């Protein structure tokens, strides 16, 4: 196979994977923010709901939630399967293994702390400036399975976004000859774009998060901690969402109102 043909196949593969996952979400998000901005209602008075209930019947709602998470992970499986064509060391190559559990956990917690506190302040600032919608992180009914489902949802987001937007995209753009800076810009803009439905503030905040995460993943300075290891990013992302989802479900309404989140 010629080099040109190989590059075309890689490019087509990237578009297919993104079209089934984050790229699709980004396109819908662009349409959504366009609708919001042309609605006539200020962004600050609009609402975006995450983890919404799918049915008034608890058992049916639980079924829908689990099916959504399960099928949502199929693009992750596809991306990993495509990378496996390189050989059995593909998971180790992107750091999706158990080689350094303690170190990965420590880096993940550190990254979550580094992003989490400024992220909350950035959200509050965005609400104050009117460029961020009110984000309801959980609208599930209060059932015995609510918290477990929110935990699974957080893990799902961590795997989907970090494996595809960082690990998979880096490997494939590297095959196309992209440099580190070009990859970081593309990955970060992709991350921001599929959060546009939450407003301009979350778009900018997630671009910053994308720069930090993709820079950490590709940085030689963190060869023994983050270099080509996606687990710390999955841990960090999951922890951030756990705090947001479960915290929203458990924190008193008065506190949420004080933060502009209710």
UniProtKB/TrEMBL annotation:
Naturally occurring in which organism (per UniProt): Myceligenerans xiligouense
Domain of life the protein comes from: Bacteria
Biological process annotations from GO: CAAX-box protein maturation; proteolysis
Transmembrane segments: 12-31, 62-84, 105-125, 200-218, 230-251
Residue ranges occupied by any CAAX prenyl protease 2/Lysostaphin resistance protein A-like domain in the UniProt entry: 144-242
InterPro entries for this protein: Rce1/LyrA-like_dom
Cited Pfam families: Rce1-like
The entry's keywords: Hydrolase, Membrane, Protease, Transmembrane, Transmembrane helix
UniProt name for this protein: CAAX prenyl protease-like protein
Gene Ontology MF annotations: endopeptidase activity
